[in-house]
Write a structure and sequence with these properties.
By secondary structure, this protein is of the alpha+beta class. The protein has twelve helices and 17 strands. Strand 11 and strand 12 form a beta hairpin. The longest helix is centred in the N-terminal third of the chain and has 44 residues. It binds one RNA strand of 94 nucleotides through helix 3 and helix 4.
Length: 432
RNA sequence: GGAGUGAUGGCCGAGUUGGUCGAAGGCGCUCGCCUGCUAAGCGAGUAUACGCUUUAAAGGCGUAUCGAGGGUUCGAAUCCCUCUCACUCCGCCA
């Protein structure tokens, strides 16, 4: 959510941000509507507050009269009329307020000035490539073929038991998944200063609004029918909302959490894209890094969280590249974002495996997360950031493809071997 | 799922025959005094949001907030309804 006062003071600045994002006309109209409603709201607010001030004063009078035994019926009669006026104005005010809030919750964040201009994802900016993609002496297989042949993933039975875009990990596949979770968490907690968090997988509506997943993206998440609960699309939601409606102290900052959870995505509108394999499924595990920081540090912290995510890929010796997301591809709640893309040799392309984002105070306003610089200072909103560190399923896919051998077996990255009981290779059952 | 109790400011805790309650008192904290040091003592202060004033900042005026939302009333922390959460007992259960 944006600061209403800022929008009112600098509408042109915001209009420009919308243009940079290539927002549709609809969004522009919504913003202009906001400005109109805001004026009406302030007018109505003043009117009703004047009346309420009068009512409060007269009520004191009435109390005075009652005590001294004087007749207050004239005052009471007058206030009955005022009371009705107040009620009418308040109803009006409430509808204006509802409309304004609804618009504010749907207006996208302000793009940071450093974000490269671009129309859509085709204009994202590659920054650097790290690690040399391996040259294969054979045709590298896609991870879904490798995984199925090795008997470590099972999509068919998952489709039977649940539906499409779900997966069973079996045997060493399940163990690899577990090893990666532990490895990633150990690195972040012991080397990079994060506190481990295991959050609830269901959250209420207020939490979804708090991180900016609602009201705009209702279609992307799973909702529990009987309750006001949603399946989390990422640990970002519960972990960020951990401090909703709280005031942190300056010494606490930055607060660094490494949350791990399953993430549930409806993937509405993605039919036909990445239909095979582990890239786009409805449920996957992820280690999510979340930071609460002082505003003036947030862009330094963005570089830091990026480095924290990169270190995982480096230790796993997976080739990847860093790209900066351009204005036109930036998400609704984002000010600035980097993506890390891992090399998938079968497709011969890089695929997103982590996103690192600065939201500035966008989420903090929605969730009312503040801090005090000193004990007496007035509370200010924190900045929140997050980064995937990493999506585990996609990491499994990357390991299978990059570490595959000509005989269909897959060697295990050396940092992972201690987590796999010393195992160095996953081979097909008949070759073990 | 059933029965009951409760939710007040940073914390504890008064206030339930509706009116002088943004809210007693205590603790904590801040500033000042006092003190050889520490402790104690004395005095003052100590919520947040929004609107207006247009303010560089401060200040001033007003409104709202006693778990959340709605209602009754001239007037609600106090009365009524709904919801949320916590605790106790019963049932069920990994």
């Amino acid at each position: 959510m944006l600061d209403a006062r800022l929008l009112r003071q600098s509408p042109d600045m915001y209009r420009e941000s919308l243009v940079r994002r290539s927002e549709p006309q609809e969004t522009h109209d919504m913003f202009e509507r906001f400005l109109v409603v805001d004026v009406a709201w302030r007018e109505a607010t003043q009117q009703t507050e004047v009346l309420k001030a009068r009512r409060n004063a007269v009520s004191q009078q009435v109390a005075q009269y009652k005590r001294t035994g004087e007749d207050a019926s004239l005052l009471i009669e007058e206030m009955r009329v005022v009371g009705e006026q107040i009620k009418e104005l308040d109803d009006h005010l409430r509808s204006l307020d509802d409309e304004m809030t609804d618009i504010l919750l749907r207006l996208p964040n302000i793009v940071h000035e450093s974000v490269p201009q671009g129309r859509d994802e085709s204009e994202n900016v590659p920054i650097r490539e790290i690690g040399e993609p391996r040259t294969f002496s054979f045709e590298p297989k896609p991870h879904w073929d490798l995984g199925v042949d090795l008997g470590i993933v099972d999509f068919e039975r998952a489709a039977k038991v649940t539906g499409s875009r779900f997966v069973f990990y079996m045997g060493l596949g399940a163990r690899l998944e577990r090893a990666l979770m532990n490895f990633m968490l150990d690195v972040q907690t012991t080397e990079r200063g994060y506190t481990e968090v295991w959050p609830p997988y269901l959250v209420n509506q207020a939490s979804m609004v708090g991180t900016g997943n609602l009201p705009k993206f209702e279609d992307d998440v799973f909702k529990i029918r009987e309750f006001d609960y949603y399946l989390i699309p990422t640990a970002e939601v519960p972990v960020t909302n951990l401090h909703r409606d709280e005031i942190l102290s300056a010494e606490q900052l930055p607060v660094n959490y490494a949350g791990y959870s399953a993430a549930f995505r409806s993937e509405a509108g993605a039919s036909g894209r990445d239909t095979r394999g582990l890239i786009r499924v409805h449920q996957f595990n992820k280690v999510e890094l979340v930071k609460f920081v002082a505003p003036e540090t947030s862009y330094d912290e963005l570089e830091r969280i990026l480095a924290d995510a990169e270190v995982i890929l480096q230790k796993l010796e997976l080739p990847y590249r860093l790209i900066e997301i351009c204005t036109g591809d930036l998400g609704f709640k984002e000010c600035k974002k980097y993506d890390l893309e891992v090399w998938l040799p079968a497709a011969g392309m890089y695929r997103e495996i982590s996103s690192c984002t600065n939201f500035e105070d966008f989420q903090a306003r929605r969730s009312n997360i503040r801090f005090r610089r000193t004990e007496k200072a007035r509370p200010e909103f924190v900045h929140t950031l997050n980064g995937s560190g990493l999506a585990v399923g996609r990491t499994v896919a990357a390991i299978l493809e990059n570490y595959q051998e000509a005989d269909g077996s897959v060697s295990i990255p050396s940092v992972l071997q201690p987590y796999m009981g010393g195992l160095t290779r996953i081979a097909a059952p008949d070759k073990r």
